[in-house]
């Protein structure tokens, strides 16, 4: 035990990476570009930056470490500050979108890959850094892939790979029978993982449980049921291992408050079995010690570009086989473990792909292509991507940027494009914000943009009786704000709570997520600051507004959302106008759901695919508002743009 930072508090055995410390530091000094591999949990994320810090890498710049996920960036920074006995936010800090916990003094900076990409925009040489660690490169997140490509242009090829010693124990995997090739409804597998968890709890020896589900809603639902059922266990009779005397249920997902997250890493007290119910974040980014049992739902939430409807959709899909192996491996870190897969062999064979497709090959590239263009990468088709996305995805991005006036016919970034790239939002939303700003009414759009950037503020309890009550409350809120525009409802809830004396109580009563709303307040302030900076530019494109004030919000939205316009087709179905002509339906959570008869044109924020394709956060619009914009969806010849891109 030679240095406090090499050891976990609870045991004195150094982490595997410790044995390679001097070799690693030397290798980093000697090479421009280094690949470090080692088994999950060996200490790459938390230890390597500390080694570099000790070795003096902070003398002429910061140590920057990127993470694809915000929770990981925050949690790991907390952990490292703690291990180094330094204050978080001073020498060790983190920065994620809308949350900057760094100061001038910060020397070790954890951040999301998106944040570093923004820094590259401002300073392509990254001159404030002496070393950059791109973590979780194997996850192939879109931003990390792009960063690799950018760094590859600056540096030569990787010099060396150092292999960590494997240190895992066997994990016995079993298949269940609850999920087969035809099962995709999440209510089914949530119940099943809970059932298996309780079974493990009562019939297996001591050891903590880790459950993999796909998102916050499911996780909270599972925790609720678990909690309820665990209450009824009689520890004198029902439990096989008499040393087990209780169950501690802990959710773990991206937008959780960080003080709650900290509990996850604390060893459970004697006799208490910990049960962590997590998203995929627990598969690689965060390592929880003491896990002996894995319960794998077989699903993950993934952002996929749906080229049939031309939009990015967050959907629940089967994990890949390699992902399933990774999940199972989390049980074998300290002793032999068990992994309970709730799906059957047929599901494994027929539904699960071998490997996960990199994000760059499955999501919209609009934001990234604009970023690249602003960095001076004109030829976005021949950029050194790790895995090139399909050319049609790049073309689609170019087309969309052209439609937003972010690039011109020759593929050059316009003035507007330069403004757009400053916003950490989807380009369409950014376009709407800038439109409002140019009409000198940013206060109409900033709160809406903020509300759309945080997690869903409407609580959906899922429990049928409570759900009815929540729905009623939400409908009442919608009708209070005019009743026919989901964007306006968001705006009015924002303002109401901002000026309310007891917002938390009001939120509770109305089934509104108070914490999400609070983040929206902070996001709005930050977007406002960015916008304020841009408006100081002498060439900010102000314009006069000569329409009806009543329609102003929707007119601003049209500037960015004309790509998301649909026209009434047959009965309750609408047909999208983006050239894909997909059939969509208004989601039951929309205020327009019940009143579907009165309008022919709608604009929407996002799409949800279940048995049908649903559009969410909707408002009716008039055809005149988009009449001049819609032709843009077809006018541009993508081949022209692509030829320009290749020049
Ligand atoms: P790697 O990046 O190689 O997967 P990490 O550096 O994340 O490994 O983790 C190294 C060890 O530190 C793991 O055993 C993990 O359990 C422990 N650890 C990481 N974060 C925390 C934390 N917040 N609290 C307690 N232990 C932690
Ligand atoms: Mg790591």
From TrEMBL:
Alphabetical list of PANTHER family matching this protein: ATP-DEPENDENT RNA HELICASE, ATP-DEPENDENT RNA HELICASE DHX40-RELATED
Enzyme Commission designation: 3.6.4.13
EC category: hydrolase
The keyword Hydrolase belongs to this UniProt entry's keyword annotation: yes
Lineage: Eukaryota, Metazoa, Chordata, Craniata, Vertebrata
Catalytically driven reaction(s): ATP + H2O = ADP + phosphate + H(+)
InterPro entries documented for this protein: DEAD-box_helicase_OB_fold, DNA/RNA_helicase_DEAH_CS, HA2_WH, Helicase-assoc_dom, Helicase_ATP-bd, Helicase_C-like, P-loop_NTPase
Alphabetically ordered keywords of this record: ATP-binding, Helicase, Hydrolase, Nucleotide-binding
Domain (Helicase ATP-binding) ranges: 25-150
One MF annotation (Gene Ontology) recorded for this entry: 3'-5' RNA helicase activity
SMART domains: DEXDc, HA2, HELICc
Keyword Ligase among record annotations: no
Residue span(s) of domain Helicase C-terminal: 197-376
Organism: Knipowitschia caucasica
SUPFAM superfamilies reported in the protein's UniProt record: P-loop containing nucleoside triphosphate hydrolases
Protein family membership: Belongs to the DEAD box helicase family. DEAH subfamily.
Protein name as catalogued: RNA helicase
């Amino acid at each position: 035990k030679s240095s406090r930072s090499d050891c976990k508090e609870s045991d004195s055995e150094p982490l595997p990476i410790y044995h390679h410390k001097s070799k690693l530091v030397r290798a980093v000094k000697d090479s421009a570009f280094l690949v470090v591999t080692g088994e999950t949990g060996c200490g790459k994320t938390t230890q390597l930056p500390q080694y570099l810090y000790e070795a003096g890498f902070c003398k002429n710049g910061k140590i920057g470490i990127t993470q694809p996920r915000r929770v990981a960036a925050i949690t790991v920074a907390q952990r490292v500050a703690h291990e180094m006995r330094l204050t978080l936010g001073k020498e060790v800090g983190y920065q994620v979108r809308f949350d900057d916990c760094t100061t001038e003094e910060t020397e070790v900076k954890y951040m999301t890959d998106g944040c570093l990409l923004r820094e590259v925009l401002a300073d392509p040489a990254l001159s404030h850094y002496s070393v950059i660690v791109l973590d979780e490169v194997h996850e192939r997140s879109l931003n990390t892939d792009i960063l690799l490509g950018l760094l590859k242009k600056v540096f030569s090829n990787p010099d060396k790979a150092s292999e960590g010693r494997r240190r895992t124990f066997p994990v016995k995997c079993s298949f269940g029978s609850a999920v087969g090739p035809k099962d995709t409804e999440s209510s089914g597998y949530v119940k099943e993982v809970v059932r298996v968890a309780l079974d493990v709890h009562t019939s297996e020896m001591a050891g903590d449980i880790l459950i993999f589900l796909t998102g916050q809603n499911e996780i909270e639902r599972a925790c609720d049921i678990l909690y309820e059922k665990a209450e009824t266990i009689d520890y004198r009779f029902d439990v096989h291992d008499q040393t087990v005397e209780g169950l501690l249920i802990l959710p773990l997902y991206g937008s959780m408050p960080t003080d709650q997250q900290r509990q996850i890493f604390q060893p459970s007290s004697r006799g208490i079995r910990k049960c962590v119910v997590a998203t995929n974040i627990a598969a690689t980014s965060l390592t929880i010690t003491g896990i002996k049992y894995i319960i794998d739902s077989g699903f993950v939430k993934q952002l996929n570009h749906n080229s049939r409807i031309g939009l990015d959709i967050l959907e629940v899909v089967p994990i890949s086989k390699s992902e399933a192996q990774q999940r199972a491996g989390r049980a074998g870190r300290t002793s032999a473990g068990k992994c309970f897969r709730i799906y059957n062999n047929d599901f494994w064979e027929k539904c699960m792909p071998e490997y996960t497709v990199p994000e760059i090959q499955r999501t919209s590239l609009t934001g990234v292509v604009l970023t690249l263009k602003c960095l001076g990468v004109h030829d976005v088709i021949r950029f050194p991507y790790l895995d090139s996305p399909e050319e049609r995805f790049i073309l689609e991005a170019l087309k969309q940027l052209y439609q937003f006036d972010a690039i011109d016919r020759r593929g050059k970034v316009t003035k507007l494009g330069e403004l757009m790239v400053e916003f950490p939002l989807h380009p369409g939303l950014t376009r709407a914000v800038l439109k409002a700003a140019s009409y000198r009414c940013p206060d109409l759009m900033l709160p809406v943009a903020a509300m759309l950037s945080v997690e869903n503020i409407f609580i959906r309890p899922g429990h049928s009786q409570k759900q009815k009550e929540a729905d009623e409350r939400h409908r009442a809120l919608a009708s209070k704000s005019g009743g026919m525009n989901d964007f306006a409802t968001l705006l009015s809830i924002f303002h109401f709570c901002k000026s309310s004396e007891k917002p938390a109580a009001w939120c509770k009563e109305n089934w509104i997520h108070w914490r999400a709303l609070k983040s929206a307040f902070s996001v709005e302030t930050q977007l406002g600051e960015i916008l304020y900076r841009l408006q100081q530019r002498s060439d900010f494109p102000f314009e006069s507004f000569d329409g009806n004030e009543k329609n102003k919000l929707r007119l601003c939205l049209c500037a960015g959302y004309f790509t998301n316009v649909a026209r009434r087709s047959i009965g309750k179905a609408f047909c999208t106008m983006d050239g894909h002509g997909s059939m969509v339906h208004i989601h039951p959570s929309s205020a327009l759901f019940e009143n579907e008869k009165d309008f022919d044109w709608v604009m929407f924020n996002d799409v949800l695919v279940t048995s049908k394709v649903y559009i969410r956060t909707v408002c009716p619009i008039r055809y005149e508002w988009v009449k001049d914009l819609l032709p843009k969806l077809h006018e541009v010849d993508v081949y022209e743009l692509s030829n320009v891109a290749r020049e």
